[in-house]
Amino acid sequence: MMTIQSNLPTISKVYAPLDIVGKTVGRYFDYKRETAMIEHETIKVKQQTKILLAEIERRLQLSLDENKKNFKQEMYRLKTIAKSLKKDSKHRDYHYKQIEELTKMLSNPEIPLSIKETIPTLMAIAHQSIDKENHLAMQKLDLMRHVPSNQILLEGK
Amino acid sequence: MLPWIIGAAVVGVGAYLLEDSKSENRSARREYNNEVAQSKSTLQSSFYNAQRKDRLDKLFKAKRAKRKIADAIYSELKNSRHHYSKVNAQLKASKYTLDTLFHQKKYADKADMKRSIQQNITIVVHTRKELFKVKDGISSNLNHLKVQLKEANMATVQIQESINHET
């Protein structure tokens, strides 16, 4: 038994070079596989970057569209109130015109005293109307201001 | 001898191939790292630009809206100023009427005439009281509108400053 064992060549002597070759080939393929994986990852990064850029662009467009919509609504609101204010201002002009006419009547000697007596009352009525119109105008202006446009437009509704 | 030469050649080719794949691997890794860094910076700058664009768009729109409000307030203010001067003119005219009536009363010799003039005076005085009320109303309105206009202009200026800051 001892003789047979001592006559056999040692494993390391015969297989060591093959082992080195095998390991080297293995490493070569490992590198190749890893390189392929890295290249694949690089392509993936490029693709994901493209996707993310498109997403950023899409979200920006959405936000710009939202801004446009909010702005349109806000301007419509403001224009409607401004139009209404102009209309009210015409009514007020009419009352001021009345006051002017009444004041002119005071100095007109041809107008009888009985008619002139009604002037202060008519003036008070015109004044009340003007007060009401002014109050309404202020309320409308507050409505324009108190929903701050920049809040709507900068932060969204 | 030949096996040794073949062996050496095989080892040489093997070492060359291994080194080649190693360097290929290194360059692929470098390219990957570059790509990741470039992607990060591209995405960051793109995101920042998008945010800036969006914010500027909002600011420009807010400025236009604020200007519309300021215009409406200014229009009201202009009207009030116009009416204020008109009412002032009427107060002056009525004062002149009142002075004339006092003068007439002073030189009127008949009692009927005096009574009639006095009635006229009373009417003018009452009318003037109402006119003063109208004037006071416009005056307080004017003050209120001036404050509002100042606020609206300030808001527009602030938005403009933000725009300047962004650009």
Describe the structure.
- With 157 residues, chain A is mainly α.
- In chain A, 90% of the residues lie in helices and 0% in strands.
- In chain A, α2 (11-106) packs antiparallel against α4 and α2 packs antiparallel against α5 (149-155).
- The model of chain A has no long low-confidence stretch (mean pLDDT 84).
- Chain B contains two helices and no strands.
- In chain B, α1 (2-107) runs antiparallel to α2 (111-166).
- The two termini of chain B are 80 Å apart.
- Classes of the chains: A mainly alpha (157), B mainly alpha (167).
- At the A-B interface, α2, α4 and α5 of A face α1 and α2 of B.
**Pair of chains with the largest interface and how many residues each contributes:** A-B, 70 and 70 residues
Runs of chain B in which pLDDT lies below 50 for 5 or more consecutive residues are none
Mean pLDDT figure of chain A: 84
Tell me roughly what share of residues is in helical segments of chain A.
over 70%
Mean pLDDT of chain B: 91
Shape of chain B: rod-shaped
Ends apart, CA distance between termini of chain A: 96 Å
Helix content of chain B: over 70%
Number of helices of chain A: 5
Q: How many E-type strands of chain B?
A: 0
The secondary structure category of chain A is mainly alpha
Structural class of chain B: mainly alpha
Multimer state = heterodimer
Computed over alpha carbons, the radius of gyration of chain A is 47 Å
Main β-sheet description of chain A:
none
Strand content of chain A: under 5%
Instruction: Give me the number of helical elements of chain B.
Output: 2
